[in-house]
Amino acid sequence: MSDTVITLPKWYDLHAHFRQDELLAPLVEAHLAMGCAGVVAMPNTRPPVAKVFDEDPGEEISVTAYRDQLFAAANDQLDEIIVPLYLTQATTPGMIERGARSGLLRACKYYPPHGTTGSEFAQHFEAFMGNGVFAAMQDNGVVLCIHGEEHGLSGEDYFGRKDNAEERFYRQRMPRLRERFPDLRVVAEHLTSKLGVDFVRQAGEGVAASVTPQHLIYTVGDLLQNFKYHLYCLPLVKFDEDRAALREAVLDPDNRQFFAGTDSAPHTAKITPCGCAAGCFTGGIAPQLYAEAFELAGADLDQQQGVDALRRFLVENGAGFYGLPVSDDTFRLIRRPTSVTPLSTSAGEITPLPLGIGPGCPEGRGELAWSLEL
Ligand code: DOR
Ligand code: ZN
């Protein structure tokens, strides 16, 4: 039997981390190698991307400068780069208005303070509810990318059988946000829980969600068994019923709200003196992993219906939500095993997720079921 080949327009990774300095070029290259036409590049650099224009006051990186660096690293091979502004104590409605009017500010990112990698510059969610920032975003059509986890919880509230940080956020904060700013366009980033999925589905078209490969493939047991720390990302992978809700949402023939956002988050030092850095690296291999995830979810990628679901998720829905054109260029997914290798950079080696998680660790799962060709 010949290998199944799926030809798709180049896709947008609507949530990825490219870091800075010497990491930027190899990370952008890994995204180009997996058929990306564009990216939403997250702003949790050091210092953060927390002002819009270079000439604005402060030592932060500007959206314009970071975007220019990314375009340069891509040799202009990326068609679209959206850099969300990191929301901090210093963010003002005026910054949002001016940025939006210039056309450069398309999105802002809310991080839970001290809740994840690089979130120490963040400000409490409620501050933006009342200080005019969310209002200015709504008025100017700027998308709010939300890391939806309640911060500052005790361990037992953070992750328990009945409740966890993400569920608390979607139960308590999101309904109020929707009520107060019904026209604010929101992306529930890297969604992991059934409660979050249900919220997004009932919220309708102004709310969308990015979904990572790992949250479609794994559950918390995969992380905990032998503590496969390369699967440690935030929000944490959750339970079977949560993964089932995500799988059902992405396979739904009417899905317009759920799209690909890898949250590819490279770390050259995963293990730190005080624990483990959160983030799974899937640069170079995400469409292959998504294809595998869709098959695990029950999609038949030999049939048009299955391919259509993958195309909506990977290519169409995110582009539609952000108003980006679907690319004229294509790439191919081929059902043919391919090996995964670590990414070598001058700042150190980065382990792609499946290498760190297989039963044969330290080699890990070094093979993927799908290959990708440009
Ligand atoms: O796992 C994660 N890694 N979650 C985040 O929110 C940030 C990211 C990173 O930048 O490493
Ligand atoms: Zn992220």
Explain what the structure shows.
The model has no long low-confidence stretch (mean pLDDT 96). It is built from 13 helices and 20 strands. It has a 6-stranded parallel sheet with strand order 7-8-9-10-11-12. The chain has a 3-stranded antiparallel sheet with strand order 1-15-20, covered by helices on one side. It has a 3-stranded parallel sheet with strand order 2-3-6. It has helices at 24-33, 63-73, 93-102, 125-130, 133-140, 155-158, 165-180, 194-203, 213-217, 220-224, 240-251, 286-296, 304-322, and strands at residues 5-9, 11-16, 36-41, 49-51, 61-62, 80-82, 85-86, 107-110, 143-146, 186-188, 207-211, 258-260, 271-272, 275-276, 330-334, 338-339, 343-345, 348-350, 367-368, 371-373. Strand 10, helix 8 (194-203) and strand 11 form a beta-alpha-beta unit. The chain is globular, with a radius of gyration of 19 Å. The protein has one domain (5-373): Alpha-Beta Barrel (TIM Barrel). The two termini are 23 Å apart. It has 374 residues and is an alpha/beta fold.
Q: Which properties best describe this structure?
A:
binds zinc ion, three-stranded antiparallel β-sheet, alpha/beta, 34% helix, TIM Barrel, single chain, binds (4S)-2,6-dioxohexahydropyrimidine-4-carboxylic acid, 374 residues, six-stranded parallel β-sheet
